[in-house]
TrEMBL record:
SUPFAM superfamilies: Acyl-CoA N-acyltransferases (Nat). The lineage of its organism: Bacteria, Bacillati, Bacillota, Bacilli, Bacillales. GO terms for molecular function: acyltransferase activity. InterPro entries: Acyl_CoA_acyltransferase, GNAT_dom. It comes from Pontibacillus salicampi. Pfam families: Acetyltransf_1. This is GNAT family N-acetyltransferase. Residues 2-166 form the N-acetyltransferase domain.
Length: 166
């Protein structure tokens, strides 16, 4: 049985592993190895995640994890980007565990936190253009395409911005 809970220090290794493996599975064929390795080094290292599981406020609500038999099989988190506007910053699953409802459960608890604790009425997410794992998921959850965003640091990897009322 999968449990969704607020992450703590004991989940750091699992969060790092899930995010790393899912990032490779999602972008391994579309992004350079150097870019993927840099993102993983910057965002999914143990030190950063440890700081992020102990921090929780409306700017960053902390990580939530999906745990089964003591193993992290999914992780996600978000925060507020404006008054009444939340954003999903990260949502990854063990690549072998897709289509089991785990992502939906994580999205639901992050959305609940943003609404109840921070007053969110709208929610945004960035999805890599062409990410056919993420785009259908978010569209099925009511997110609507708003615009493209070309990152200045790497204009090769265009993001699509989606939002929904919550």
């Amino acid at each position: 049985m999968i449990e969704i809970r607020k992450a703590n220090e004991s989940h750091v290794e699992g969060i790092s592993s899930v995010c790393t493996n899912a990032y490779w599975a999602t972008y391994g064929e579309t992004h350079s190895n150097e870019y993927i390795e840099r993102v993983i080094k910057d965002y999914y290292n143990h030190e950063r995640i440890l700081g992020e599981v102990t921090e929780s406020n409306c700017d960053w609500g902390g990580y939530f994890v999906a745990v089964e038999k003591g193993k992290v099989v999914g992780a996600g988190g978000g925060g507020m980007i404006d008054n009444r506007v939340g954003e999903l910053f990260v949502l990854y699953l063990d690549p072998t565990r897709r289509n089991e409802g785990i992502g939906t459960k994580l999205l639901d608890i992050i959305t609940q936190q943003q609404k109840e604790e921070c007053g969110a009425e709208e929610q945004w997410v960035s999805v890599q253009k062409g990410n056919m794992r993420g785009i259908p998921f978010y569209e099925a959850k009511g997110f609507k395409f708003q615009h493209e965003k070309v990152p200045y640091e790497n204009p090769t990897y265009i993001k699509w911005r989606y939002s929904r009322k919550i």
